[in-house]
Amino acid sequence: MKAVRLQSVGNLSVETVEKPVPGPNELLVKIEACGVCGTDRHILAGEFPSRPPVTLGHEFCGIVEAIGSGVSTVAIGARITGDPNISCGLCPQCRNGRVNLCHNLKAIGIQQDGGFAEYAIVPESQAYEIPLSLHPHHGAFCEPLACCLHGVDMAEIKPGSSVVILGGGVIGMLTVQLCKIAGATTIVMSTRQADKRHLAEEIGATHSIDPSQGNAIELLAGKNGLLPGGADVVIECAGVAETMMEAPKMARAGGTVVILGVMAAGEKIEIEPFDILFRELRVLGSFVNPFTHRRAADMIASGAVKVDKLISRTVGLEEAVEVISNPPRRGEIRVMVLPNAE
Ligand code: NAP
Q1: Which class does domain 146-285 fall in?
Q2: What is the pTM for the complete model shown?
Q3: Which CATH superfamily includes the segment(s) 2-141+307-337?
Q4: In testing the pocket of ligand 1, which one of 36, 260, 284, 329 has its CB within 8 Å of the most ligand atoms?
Q5: How confident is the model at residue 136 (pLDDT cuts 50, 70, 90)?
Q6: Does the CB atom of residue 262 touch ligand 1 within 6 A?
Q7: Residue 342 pLDDT more than 70?
Q8: Ligand 1 center to residue 89 CA distance, Å?
């Protein structure tokens, strides 16, 4: 079968490999769709730890084609979405229920073979069944949605809250919808591209700002801004220094900042500790998807979260290498890889 393999940092290509065979408690999944995530680009650039040689792709869904011995909760023919993050269950963090902080955390598509391939092996423990009636491309949004759900849970949004979301990629667009569902009444999207601002307003944002048109902090939290004094919650979804520094300045006193965006390990930004102390800000990191995958799958399956407009284009495995190796095209939200498309 064909698979997109990372041989080493910076070295990605399509290779022909053996079709895998499921072991005990494992599923063989025929991949229908697998999304290209910003993290795949960080992995290729060596900015996010992986374990090459490995097949990338951690946002996938597909049909169970075979099952190993001992599998009891999923049948052949079921459609599943995979939670890629595998925790050990034994370390102190796992035993305290913080599985995303597991000392031995590994992920399908990062440390072990993933979904940019015709087939993938998925442990039964990582599989979540979704309806066969669902559009297969939509199932591939369960993983990013589960990550956004964790961030929105941490933000503790209340009915009537005001929220600012920085960055109009897929993470920002899913977060907009979750904030609306959580009851926020003012939801501001800050992103530079006009098309993305329009889309954000179509799917739930009440306002949008263009941070390249002047001082974004003033536009938002200034005396004549959209939310004078700042927002109850600011969620950073861009992963760039500029928005990381803007986020605390856009929060009201006593407000919450959640960091979902990834900056490479070792990169630094300037912060003003006095401002965080004096205005009692809560600044929280949100890492992956602990116990949120089931809810995410249910929200996609029920149509509560809309993902159709977030798919910019679909490609095969050969083109996936070029997509992962380059920054997103202008206007692009999510590229979906279809490994088994004719
Ligand atoms: P993405 O497609 O790169 O989207 C980020 C967006 O940020 C871009 O579309 C860009 O849109 C906007 N942006 C860039 N500079 C900006 C600025 N100065 N002000 C406002 N907006 C700006 O990435 P994504 O897939 O949505 O992912 C977002 C981040 O989340 C990435 O760093 C990714 O690695 C991370 N992530 C984290 C988790 C987690 O568990 N925490 C899970 C998945 C992904 P414009 O050109 O319109 O500005």
Answers
A1: alpha beta
A2: 0.97
A3: Medium-chain alcohol dehydrogenases, catalytic domain (3.90.180.10)
A4: 260
A5: confident
A6: yes
A7: no
A8: 31
